[in-house]
Write a structure and sequence with these properties.
It is a single chain. The protein is of the alpha/beta class. Helix content is 51%, strand content 20%. Strands 8-9-11-12-13-14-15-16 form an eight-stranded mixed barrel, surrounded by five helices.
């Protein structure tokens, strides 16, 4: 065989090898390159023990940008990300693109959590700069996960599982977060997964109950409606707080079947109440991102035979901010059916006044944090007074949450708020208890009318 032929074959073999280790879009390494790098480092460090770090990064909000501007623009952003990562990688480090907007890197000289967090600050700054798309530019934040060898795993598979867990934890906490894998985080994720499986079973078995907290006329304590609240008492786990399982249901994508079941139960119960009483029900952030929410809610109301004009839906500012255009469309279509809309936890967000102007609302619920301090904290009193005056000017009803004392109720009445709820009037109760509560108080309501 000639030398020339041998060299040609060598060049072809090298090119094939390079291609198999390269991401065709960005020119970075690919998953095969990552596996090779980690495997070699594990072998080297097993002979001369020293930690090294594996990292993952995802772009927050990349998919909507990709959908809005098209895949060409999305590919352009990914190439810019690759260029920035390549430029700021320290000596000996390797960056690769795994798929979509997921990138990974191996940092041989980062030995501990401190070092991982320090370099993540650099990466975050680099990746948060505007991305040039010709006539426009966009900004994106990034979420990071890190795993340190050998504490988070002693081979490629274990390290990747750990770094995936760390990244997932970052995304659970919000945008632009950084998580370094630890045993505690792994245990927390394991518990969350176990809780998720139990919740899925409970939804299928119809074991999540609806309780009802009275909403009253503060002038006489007579109920005018009830807020529906989910309650879950698992045979093995015991009572699970809604503050735990509702966010978990949203995060794991099971909030829709849960809320649909809750709404059916709640409206069936409310059918037995006096016709003038309303039902208040909380919409999740996921439902305000789903254009079919209007259709699904109306289908439930029609199947139960519940008058839409007796239903009030509670939303939060945070849920509205995810996609205001879709959320407003859903709200407008539901209000056109007669459903009323309340802004929950008012006063705690960063843009409450703007939300009052931008959302078609019927009611505002003052957050319990202000109500609890109204009798002993002048700023809280003035804030509530301002909210009431503002809502009067906008022709919105005001509901105070978390009323626990007669003094708080009297102060609210004096400021012009006549509707409220809280432990002073009743804790969340079962459907039977709610009916008894209505029967006990209905005569006063009739006498008043």
């Amino acid at each position: 065989m000639s030398v020339e032929l041998t060299n040609t074959r060598a060049r072809v073999g090298s090119a094939v090898h390079t291609a198999s280790y390269t991401d065709p879009l960005t020119g970075l390494g690919n998953r095969a390159r990552l596996r090779d790098k980690i495997t070699k480092l594990v072998h080297e460090r097993s002979l001369d023990p020293a930690p090294f770090t594996v990292g993952l990064v995802n772009l927050d909000g990349f998919r909507p940008i990709n959908d809005l501007f098209g895949h060409t623009a999305g590919d352009d952003i990914l190439c810019q990300v690759a260029h920035r990562l390549r430029a700021c990688m320290p000596s000996g480090a390797v960056a690769v693109r795994l798929e979509n907007d997921a990138f990974a890197f191996v940092l041989p000289l980062v030995f501990d959590q401190n070092g991982a967090e320090k370099i993540s600050d650099l990466f975050k700054d680099v990746l948060s700069a505007p991305y040039d798309l010709g006539k426009r530019s966009v900004r994106l934040s990034s979420s990071f996960g890190f795993a340190i060898y050998p504490y988070a795993g002693e081979d490629y598979g274990a390290l990747m599982e750990s770094v995936d867990t760390a990244l997932y934890q970052s995304k659970r906490r919000g945008r632009g977060q950084v998580t370094v894998y630890s045993v505690d985080i792994a245990e927390e994720m394991k518990r969350a997964t176990q809780l998720e499986q139990a919740l899925r079973r409970a939804i299928i078995a119809d074991e999540v109950d609806v309780h009802f907290q009275p909403i009253v006329d503060l002038r006489d304590g007579v109920p005018i409606g009830f807020e529906a609240l989910a309650r879950w008492n698992d045979p093995e786990l015991g009572f699970v707080s809604p503050a735990t399982f509702i966010p978990l249901a949203e995060e794991r994508g099971i909030i829709e079947p849960l809320t649909e079941t809750m709404l059916k139960k709640a409206t069936n119960t409310a059918l037995g109440w006096p016709g003038e009483m309303f039902l208040s029900f909380n919409l999740s952030s996921a439902q305000l991102l789903d254009p079919s929410t209007h259709e699904k809610i109306m289908a439930i109301l029609h199947s139960v035979g519940f008058d839409p004009r007796r239903l009030g839906l509670e939303i939060t500012e945070t849920a509205m901010m995810a996609d205001p255009e879709i959320a407003n469309s859903i709200i407008d279509s539901l209000r056109a059916e007669g459903v009323s809309i309340s802004l929950d936890d008012f006063g705690t967000g960063q843009s409450s006044l703007g939300r009052l102007r931008e959302i078609a609302l019927d009611k505002v619920k003052i957050d319990r944090a202000f109500v609890s301090e109204i009798t002993r904290d002048r700023p809280s009193e003035h804030i509530i007074k301002a909210i009431i005056a503002l809502c009067e000017g906008l022709d919105l009803e005001v509901v105070a949450e978390g009323i626990e004392t007669v003094e708080q109720a009297d102060k609210l009445l004096g400021l012009g708020c006549s509707i409220g709820q809280g432990y002073l009037y009743g804790r969340p109760m079962s459907a039977d208890q709610a009916q008894l509560f209505i029967n006990t108080n209905h005569s006063r309501a009739v006498a008043r009318s």
